[in-house]
Please model this.
Amino acid sequence: MRVLVGLSGGVDSAIAAYLLKQQGYDVTCAFMRNWDSTTNQDFLGNPTIDDDICPQEKDYNDAKAVAEALGLELLRVDFIKEYWDYVFTSFLEDYKKGRTPNPDILCNKYIKFSSFFDFAKSKGFDMVATGHYAKVDHQEDESFLLKAHDTNKDQSYFLCQISKEALRQTLFPLGEVDKPEVRRIAAELDLIIAKKKDSTGICFIGERNFREFLKNYLPAKSGNIIDVESKKVLGQHEGVLYYTIGQRKGLNIGGVGGPWFVVGKDVQRNELYVAAHEDNPWLVSDCCLVSGMNWLVNDVPQGKYACCAKFRYRQKDHPVFIEVLEDGNINCTYPQGIPAVTPGQQAVFYQGDVCLGGGVIEVIYRDGVDIATKIQETLYGE
Model:
């Protein structure tokens, strides 16, 4: 069986390729170039980051060295335009609306398990594989996405939007392997990436300050930071688009009464709303509306269905009830209340270890009222 492995230049995808070769697959590797870090501007003429911040060519050289050490062919494929059109543009549009998107999920949906998947099929490969920490259970009529054995590294959350067709022809070799074992195998093979640090953040930002990067595309416009409870102006924000619900750091409004947390924002008024202490009711919702639901199972839950949800990566599973509405959206309720559920992020649903699918959090509610509306009514009587 011919398998095309996405080789990133990191240790995880390297060991994924090695394990598949050991298991007898006919393995070829491919390096995906998704962001043009070789020029100083993007398609719109905006300045981008320097090569030494997003060292994509260094990653390619590492991938070449790994493929050579493993005796595998390495292809190179560019998805720069696709990434710009389907990931980065969507990322910016969501931020302009005051939402907090997850570009890693978009990258998996549109690039790694769509553009890359189509490229693999066009070259006659039977399956694709990546270094994600997740499992896939291929049954006769259906394939199931499951959490990884290494729960600390489980990345099924980021895979919630891939298509069932792509999942059907995907392998995750690291599903049963934990990170220390991956490092051990890499060291045993004397691969040059054995001690390479894991990548952090978003590819096109690298180690650069996130807020500074966004300023290239979403110009800063300062405004008031308002305490929802006292209605007092506590300070000035650097640009309301740069903040997310639940955020504590970077507010620069110390003093008596904190710590302070972001509980909402209004793009039109250019105001950021905060409340004190992590147990503050203004942080807590008990229901959310989820749109763009991507089901990874054939049997879509009917009625009021009990399962668990993650509302952001590395968050614990929360018990919830979901109900599919007539328009296909999901009404997700959690009477116990959960803090910092954030519009624009993904709600990913699980039944045990099986990932049912996920969608975008559109609106958060408490006691049947949209919290954004509740904030406006409290402050302005609207």
Remarks:
- The helical segments are 11-22, 56-70, 80-96, 103-122, 164-168, 179-188, 210-214, 371-380.
- The first helix runs from residue 11 to 22.
